[in-house]
């Protein structure tokens, strides 16, 4: 009997612990900013989607001295009719690090996605990709950075 009460008590404590983990309301965005045009009928409403347009999709840093860190900002605009949200930006290598807005971007609003390239340990021509994931259709956009790393 005592064993059953002990197991139930531990279970309750465990459930309380799990339900409280990561329950920071500042980290969660309201779900009404995400618009999904797909329907069961197959007739998607593409008119009211957010749209991401970059001024430039490829940036060439040119000649970079090995060990140098360079940064560039890809300017973009939400040309759609609803709020846009970038959920993630992944890079093709650890030598590139991104910084992007994590709040909803209003229609017509312009923002900048920054990428820093660290040429330490690299040499020759470098061509790296950044994959932007957002609530647009299609939901991915690939950007590129290039550099020619020279050894001093």
Structural description of this entry:
With 152 residues, the chain is mainly β. It has a single domain (1-152), classed as Immunoglobulins (Immunoglobulin-like, Sandwich), CATH 2.60.40. The protein is built from one helix and eight strands, in the order αββββββββ. The protein has one helix spanning 2-20; strands spanning 52-54, 58-65, 69-78, 86-91, 96-99, 110-118, 124-134, 140-150. Strands 1-3-6-5 form a four-stranded antiparallel beta sheet, with no helix packed on it. The protein has a four-stranded mixed beta sheet with strand order 2-8-7-4, with no helix packed on it. The radius of gyration is 22 Å and the shape is flat. The model is unreliable at 22-27 (pLDDT under 50).
Question: Which features does this protein show?
Answer:
152 residues; mainly beta; Immunoglobulin-like; four-stranded antiparallel beta sheet; four-stranded mixed beta sheet; 8 strands
**CATH class designation:** Mainly Beta
Named CATH topology: Immunoglobulin-like
Largest sheet: 4 strands, antiparallel
Mean pLDDT: 83
Given the C-alpha coordinates, what overall shape results? flat
Strand content: 35-45%
| Helix content bin | 10-25%
Q: In sequence order, what are the helices and strands, one letter per element? A: HEEEEEEEE
Q: Which oligomeric state applies?
A: single chain
**Whole-number tally of structural domains:** 1
Low-confidence spans: pLDDT under 50, at least 5 residues? 22-27
Total number of beta strands: 8
The largest sheet has its strands arranged as: 1-3-6-5
Summing up helix and strand content along with how strands pair, one would put the structural category as mainly beta
Radius of gyration from the alpha-carbon trace, in angstroms: 22 Å
What is the helix tally? 1
CATH architecture: Sandwich
Q: For the record, give the distance between the C-alpha atoms at the N and C termini, rounded to a whole number.
A: 75 Å
CATH superfamily: Immunoglobulins
